[in-house]
Amino acid sequence: MKTLDSPLDNQPQLWGHPVGLYVLFFTEMWERFSYYGMRAILVLYITAKTMEENPGMGWTDPEALKLYGWYTMLVYVASIPGGIIADKFIGQKKAVLWGGIILVAGHTILAIQQDWAFYTGLGLIIAGVGFLKPNISTMVGGLYREGDDRRDKGFTIFYIGINIGAFISSLLVGYVGESIGWHYGFGLAGIGMALGLAVYLWGQKYLTHVGNFLGNADNPDKEAYNRPLTKIEVDRMLVMFLSFLIIIVFWGAFEQAGGLMNLYAKDKTNRMLMGYEVPASWFQSVNAFFIITLGTAVAGFWYNWKKKGKEGSSLFKMAIGLIIMGFGFLFMRFAAQQYETTGSSAMYWLVLAYLLHTIGELCASPVALSFITKLAPVKYASFMMGAYFAATGLGNKVAGLLGEGAADAGEKTIFTGIFIVTVVIGILVILLLRPLKRLTHGAEDIVLDDNDEAEGLELGGNNTLIERN
Fold first, then answer.
1. Residues 312, 305: contact at Cβ < 8 Å?
2. Cα separation, 253 vs 174, whole angstroms
3. What does 222-275 look like in DSSP terms, one character per residue?
């Protein structure tokens, strides 16, 4: 049996994980409801004609994709100042609180049918996500002791929460926005964020030991902030920055979902199903649905894979995820080819593409979040999480540029190019895996207390075994 010698050991538990995980789960679920709900209709609203029954802004597709690229990039790049402010001034817990408040204001203003409100709302959402996103993810990692094998599972649970919000919002906000009014959809997204903020305020009693500001003079952890980085920490910072290159490529491809693939669903896909035309925005829920239904299976596969002694490092999973996601664009190439031949493409191409995109995402994204919390020095914890999301933002900008390029090069060329680049880069990472892993200095090794049983095994969360390396 373990001795209870730290706040992390004394946390209330639910289903094998700290209760605080579920507070953050529901907070992030509603925040992602607001973000993905708004994202599902953003490009559709911008490109809708001004004289239609449900009028939009009347922009061209390339103009809308350019704004989409800048907006989604800035949403994530804002995580860098959000992380720095948390690390140096207010702590992660208060940063999440202020982020939630700003997001409620941003989504509420976005519901006003004025140009000034549109741009002001987007600006506030960028700032709010910058405060909330990196810091809530860092807090998830802070719920677990170093070497606790439940951490990856905890991030998978957290990630499923993100996608429950994304799934519900794509259906509800998408339907309201397309069928009733775009600004009603934006307003509904704001209600979701208000619910997330309420959950976070209610659950503070389960988060007393994580996300606190460490810069106060009387804080026992202040020493970790003042000392210079060690050689091991420098190496770990280096491998994290190298991993961000994978992240940029991954999201540059994946985020075609909200832009080019969203417009493709609207304009070039036969969406008739049993006499009903499926709203284009509903396809944004397919990815989230697959994550909810496949998340546990994919996490279980990797757990058993590693338990058998096979390669299971985060970098390997990220590379495999990149390759699998890339193959999803083969289906989009087939869709574009069918459109060139018949003037329409079938819905199943989009569904199959989203299936592979989802499996690739489940291999790469939650693991990448956990990877950062394992390697980042304490003094730069939120900054490095912010840098991770900034890399995600740069990927979003790349996605927008690729979407704009489709106007000249054509969708088939863009989809084929994405497939080739992602697969090649994924293979290169696998070939360089050994030297990259050396830079982590064993940060992903699983360790247990000396008080654990001699066999080196114990029953962990979700009835899984924690093994000593």
1. yes
2. 23
3. HHHHHSPPPHHHHHHHHHHHHHHHHHHHHHHHHTTTTTHHHHHHHHHB--EETT
Determine the 3-state secondary structure of 453 from DSSP.
coil
User: Cβ-count burial of 121 within 10 angstroms (0-12 exposed, 13-18 middle, 19+ buried)?
Assistant: buried
pLDDT score, position 14: 66
Domain ranges of the chain: 15-214+230-444
The Cα–Cα gap between 48 and 60 comes to 9
* Contact (CB, 8 A) for 48 and 57: yes
Give the orientation angle of helix 115-142 with respect to helix 381-409, to 10 degrees: 130
Q: Choose among 102, 95, 65: nearest CA to 79.
A: 95
Residue 421 token pair: 């680049």
**CA Rg, the chain, in Å?**
22
List C-alpha distances in Å: 116 to 70, 111, 123: 18, 11, 11
Domain 15-214+230-444, CATH: 1.20.1250.20
pLDDT in tens, 160-198: 788 788 888 888 988 898 888 888 988 998 899 999 999
User: Which of 164-168, 290-294, 412-416, 464-468 ranks highest by mean pLDDT?
Assistant: 412-416
Residue 184 to residues 53, 190, 242, Cα–Cα distance (Å): 14, 10, 42
Q: Letter for the amino acid at 171?
A: L
Give 280-328 pLDDT, tens digit per residue: 878 878 888 888 888 788 878 887 888 888 887 889 999 999 999 999 9
What does the alpha-carbon distance between residue 430 and residue 371 come to, in Å, rounded to a whole number? 17
| CA dist., res. 315 & res. 240, Å (int) | 10
Residue-averaged pLDDT of the chain:
81
Of the candidates 254, 253, 245, the one whose C-alpha atom is nearest the C-alpha of residue 429 is 245
Nearest CA to 49 among 65, 61, 40, 39?
61
Compute the distance between CA of residue 454 and CA of residue 448 in angstroms, rounded to an integer: 11
Q: Is 201 left (phi over 0), alpha (psi -120 to 50) or beta?
A: alpha
Q: What does the block give as tokens for 265?
A: 């669903």
Q: Which residues contact 135 (CB under 8 A, 6 or more apart)?
A: 82, 83, 86, 92, 93, 95, 96, 99, 211, 382, 385
Render the burial of 333-351: b for 16+ CB within 10 Å, e for the rest.
Answer: bbbbbbbeeeeebbbebbe
- Ramachandran bin of 453, using left for φ above 0, alpha for ψ from -120 to 50, beta for the remaining angles: beta
Distance, CA of 34 to CA of 121 (rounded, Å): 13
CA–CA distance, 92 with 76 (Å, rounded to integer): 16
